[in-house]
Amino acid sequence: EAEAAEEAAGRAAGAMVASAGDALTLAEAEAARLAEISAQLEAAAAAAEARAARLVARAEALAEEERQRSLDRAFDQAEASGAALAQLEAIDEAVEAGSLTLEAAIEQLAAMRR
């Protein structure tokens, strides 16, 4: 009977070792799976960070382009205003000098408005 008990205990111990080995194998597989998922998450985070940096750079470039267009429009308007002012001054001087009649000056001013 002692032999049978010893044999049963040996089988039970062997089964426990096999079960522990299976559990260790499963744990190692899960650890490898978690490491793979972690690596994928890190790669996705790096890609998202790079994309965000590109988007910020593009937004800054677009803002600079819009700023330049606004400056160009303001400059064009200032040039037009300056040209109109120069024309007005020339008309005024011509009227004062008597080389342009008031009616002709009015016609020129009306033409400028068109």
Gist?
The protein is mostly helical and 114 residues long. It has two helices and no strands.
Quickly list its features.
2 helices, mainly alpha, rod-shaped, 114 residues
Q: What percent of the residues sit in helical stretches (DSSP H or I)?
A: over 70%
Mean model confidence by pLDDT: 86
Low-confidence blocks of residues = none
Count the beta strands.
0
Rg (C-alpha, Å): 45 Å
Query: Which range does the strand content fall in?
Result: under 5%
- Secondary-structure-based class equals mainly alpha
Order of helices and strands: HH
* Main sheet summary: none
Distance between the first and last residues' Cα:
122 Å
Form type:
rod-shaped
Number of helices: 2
Topology:
Blueprint: H1 2-97, H2 102-113
Can you offer a commentary on this structure?
This protein is mostly helical. 95% of the residues lie in helices and 0% in strands. The chain is built from two helices and no strands. It has helices at residues 2-97, 102-113. Helix 1 (2-97) runs antiparallel to helix 2. The model has no long low-confidence stretch (mean pLDDT 86).
